[in-house]
Amino acid sequence: MKASAHRRISLLRGLAWISGIALVRGLARKVSAVIAECNYAQHRMIELATAPDHYLFRPDAAPDTYAEFIYRTSGVLRHEPSARARARALR
Questions:
Q1: Which of 6, 8, 16, 91 is such that its CA lies 20 to 30 A from the CA of 33?
Q2: Would you place residue 52 in the very low, low, confident or very high pLDDT band (cuts 50, 70, 90)?
Q3: How far apart are CA 26 and CA 54, in angstroms?
């Protein structure tokens, strides 16, 4: 076999190896995104299930008293993500 043919085969093997790595990275990224989405959904379901509004007779109505307002806001509050986390999400 000639040296140029050897180089070509070596180059093709190298490209196949690189594309294999890219495939594994892409798959890992997708699996990570699914796990992150499941984590977010689970946290959100817990927030909704434990919210005081969930147990009220009229949860969509405005509170009648200040005490009722305080009771409704006594549960876990959703926090806005930091600027760093928002910037990371835009990437």
A1: 16
A2: confident
A3: 40
